[in-house]
């Protein structure tokens, strides 16, 4: 396994970047720590997203090469659960999934010859794009898009939403409410997998077997609106998106867009490996 291209950049700065790339002799991974949706901060120094990304990075760096996807899910869940217990916040985390240490993770296992998708990171394998989106995010993105487009058609300026994204504010309560469905087995239509310290819904984890014809794999966070075979092409596509549709409401729909002080709509990470 050889790194061809590796790049990560925060939407505001590297210091606030909640994405992490991890590469060992046996694994390659992109970790997308979720931005906190409440005022609860588990670690005194790091944001919840940066903290959980660091925890997962350490786990991947030390785990046995022949671990399975299911075993990884058990291991990472136990580690984060123990953090809650140690910090005496377990009872609160059970009741408030929106406050949990949450991350999406995509991992290539060199030993298993598999890509594991937990959450909404993305992969490009033999020219085929693999996604694992959260159902609620698709719904919330459409609501936000419709609202902002209506406002723009009524005379509002794009700059207004750079200063204050009222569309984002509108859908945040929906996004928070839908955290109840993370790893849930109660509602298949809305359930999605994430790492959050509680049992991961394996039915919502994608496992992609890599055959011998595959020479390169691209792993990325969801900060790229269109994942392409090279970093340069993916970055160019992002640049076009931010120029043509910076609010992310038409060409590419998202629950958030570009705002003042940021350089993109989300943190982004790109890892291209030769296998």
Spatial shape: globular
Number of discrete helical segments: 7
Distance between the termini: 5 Å
Estimate percent helicity. 25-40%
Total strands: the figure is 10
Fraction in beta strands: 15-25%
The biggest beta sheet reads:
5 strands, antiparallel
**Classification by helices and strands:** alpha+beta
Rg, nearest Å? 18 Å
Strand order of the largest sheet: 1-10-9-6-7
Named CATH architecture: 4-Layer Sandwich
Assign the CATH class.
Alpha Beta
CATH topology term: Phosphatase 2c, domain 1
Reading the helices and strands in chain order gives EEEHHHEEEEHHHEEHE
Overall pLDDT metric: 97
List the helices and strands and how they pair.
Elements: E1 2-9, E2 19-23, E3 27-33, H1 48-62, H2 69-86, H3 90-95, E4 103-109, E5 114-118, E6 122-125, E7 128-130, H4 135-153, H5 158-163, H6 166-177, E8 206-209, E9 216-220, H7 231-244, E10 268-274
Antiparallel strand pairs: 1-10, 2-3, 3-4, 4-5, 5-8, 6-7, 6-9, 9-10
Overview of this protein structure:
The chain has 275 residues and is α+β, with helices and mostly antiparallel strands. The chain has one domain (2-133, 193-241, 263-274): 4-Layer Sandwich (Phosphatase 2c, domain 1), CATH 3.60.40.10. It is 33% helix and 20% strand. The protein has 7 helices and 10 strands. The protein has helices spanning 48-62, 69-86, 90-95, 135-153, 158-163, 166-177, 231-244; strands spanning 2-9, 19-23, 27-33, 103-109, 114-118, 122-125, 128-130, 206-209, 216-220, 268-274. The strands form 2 sheets. Strands 1-10-9-6-7 form a 5-stranded antiparallel β-sheet, with no helix packed on it. A hairpin with a 3-residue loop joins strand 2 and strand 3 (27-33). Helix 1 crosses helix 2 (69-86) and helix 4 (135-153) packs antiparallel against helix 6 (166-177). The protein is globular and about 60 Å long. The mean pLDDT is 97.
């Amino acid at each position: 396994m050889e790194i061809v291209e590796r790049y990560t950049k925060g939407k505001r700065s590297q210091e606030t970047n909640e994405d992490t790339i991890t590469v060992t002799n046996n694994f390659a991974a992109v970790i997308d720590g979720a931005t906190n949706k409440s005022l609860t901060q588990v670690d005194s120094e790091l944001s919840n997203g940066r903290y959980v990304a660091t925890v997962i990075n350490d786990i991947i760096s030390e785990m046995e090469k022949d671990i399975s996807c299911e075993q990884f899910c058990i291991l990472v869940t136990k580690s984060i659960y123990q953090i809650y217990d140690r910090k005496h916040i377990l009872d609160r985390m059970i009741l408030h999934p929106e406050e949990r240490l949450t991350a999406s993770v995509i991992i290539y296992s060199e030993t298993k010859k598999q890509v594991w998708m937990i959450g909404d990171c993305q992969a490009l394998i033999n020219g085929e794009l693999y996604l694992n989106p959260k159902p609620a995010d698709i719904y919330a993105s459409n609501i936000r898009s419709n609202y902002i487009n209506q406002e723009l058609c009524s005379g509002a300026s794009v700059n207004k939403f750079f200063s204050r994204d009222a569309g984002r504010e509108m859908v945040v309560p929906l996004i928070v409410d839908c955290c109840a469905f993370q790893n849930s087995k109660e509602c298949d239509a809305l359930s999605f997998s994430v790492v959050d310290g509680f049992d991961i819904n394996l039915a919502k984890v994608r496992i992609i077997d890599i055959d011998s014809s595959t020479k390169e794999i691209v792993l990325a966070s969801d900060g790229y609106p269109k994942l392409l075979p090279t970093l340069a092409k993916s970055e160019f596509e992002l640049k076009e998106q931010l120029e043509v549709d910076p609010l992310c409401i038409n060409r590419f729909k998202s629950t958030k867009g570009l705002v003042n002080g940021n350089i993109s709509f989300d943190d982004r990470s790109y890892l291209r490996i030769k296998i």
